[in-house]
Design brief:
Radius of gyration: 21 Å
Number of strands: 18
Order of helices and strands: HHHHEEEEEEEEEEEEEEEEEE
Helix content: 10-25%
Largest sheet: 14 strands, antiparallel, barrel
Structural class: mainly beta
Shape: globular
Distance between the termini: 46 Å
Strand content: over 45%
Length: 352
């Protein structure tokens, strides 16, 4: 009997996981809402930092970074992309949005062995001018809530065209309300990813985010909802969870009108119930993302995207930097219903 190598055993395990995830997506698409339940609302659940994405180029393309080998930070988008980085790549960016919202990212990634890649990513979102009031509705100052996600990822190539990856996340949210009310601090949120090159032009990926440790693999956390100022003098806490997120992505390159186009699409499923898997469609929400990148010239790229109701556009420009290159990214985001237009998003990417 032939013994399998470590790489073959790893590939077999991850392939089995990929099949299970694919089956769960198909099962959810054909599931029927249960009569006794009402549909859940995604916006009422934690995980907004994860859903807003990271990276300025990715933002301009509708936040479609799951199957893009140049995605940065890949530790967030899909850790299985990491071993396809031939050089050490660094990316930073920031955006300022209406309603006093701010955000940013930083990432570094590259190969650490012939078939192994590693990456570190930081994502930040928050507000810098939120009026705070006490229980009597009297102003008590300005709060600056901030959320920070730190992702450490590893990706393993099992062949020239196939890879798997995993990332662990540390999530910290400070609501700036005093007494720890609303704050979250949790380590041990996991992302698993798969990436496949079918041809030089066609790539696919599958990612499952917000997994935890436990029998139902829930990324749960405790949150202080009331400080000890009542008659009993005890703090009140509640337990909540990050919705498991399944992403199936495709990335296709094509020559059109003498120019190269990159087309990206992603299907997403959010499970809004803390079960291993819920068969009730009322506890799932599906949506999609689309993106296009036109390589107009060797230095200039023009981009546009759609992300779950939001529209985006932008550009990228590459400048020589010694023997290397530095790339400037810009994006404008038009949020749902054209209620807000956010033109202040810039980023830089370069290799070491």
């Amino acid at each position: 009997m032939t013994r399998m190598t470590f790489r073959q055993r790893t590939a077999r395990s991850f392939q089995g996981l990929s099949i299970l995830v694919s089956m769960s997506i198909i099962m959810n698409l054909v599931a029927s809402p249960a009569r006794a339940t009402a549909p859940e609302v995604l916006g009422g659940h934690e995980g907004w930092l994860d859903r807003m994405g990271g990276g300025i180029r990715e933002l301009a393309m509708g936040n479609t970074g799951t199957a893009n080998e140049e995605a940065n930070p890949a530790a967030y988008w899909n850790p299985a992309l990491l071993p396809f980085n031939r050089e050490t790549a660094v990316g930073v960016g920031a955006d300022m949005r209406s309603l006093d919202r701010n955000g940013g990212f930083a990432g570094i990634q590259g190969r650490v062995a012939a078939n192994l890649g590693a990456g570190l990513a930081l994502l930040n979102r928050g507000d810098y001018n939120v009026k705070a009031y006490d229980e009597d509705e009297k102003p008590i100052g300005t709060a600056r809530p901030q959320a920070l996600g730190t992702y450490l990822g590893l990706g393993l190539k099992t062949s020239r065209s196939n890879s798997f990856g995993a990332a662990v996340q540390w999530y910290s949210a400070n609501m700036d309300l005093g007494g720890g009310t609303g704050d979250i601090n949790v380590i041990g949120i996991f992302t698993l990813g798969w990436y496949k090159r079918w041809t030089p032009d066609l790539k696919t990926a599958l990612v499952i985010r917000n997994l935890g440790i436990g029998p139902d693999l829930n990324a749960s956390f405790d949150q202080t909802t009331l400080t000890g100022q009542d008659a009993l003098g005890f703090d009140h806490t509640a337990t909540d969870f990050f919705p498991k997120t399944l992403v199936a992505a495709v990335f296709y390159s094509h020559m059109l009108w003498t120019r190269n186009f990159d087309l990206a699409g992603e299907l997403m499923d959010f499970q809004l119930k803390p079960d291993l898997y819920s068969l009730d469609a009322n506890f799932h929400e599906q949506d999609f993302r689309l993106g296009v990148d036109c390589h107009y010239t060797e230095a200039l790229s023009l981009r546009a995207g759609y992300d779950r109701g939001n529209l985006s556009a932008g550009l990228g420009y590459t400048l020589p930097w010694g023997k290397r290159r530095i790339q400037f990214d810009y994006a404008v985001l038009i949020e749902k219903g054209w209620l807000t237009v956010n033109p202040l998003a810039v980023g830089l990417r370069f290799t070491l």
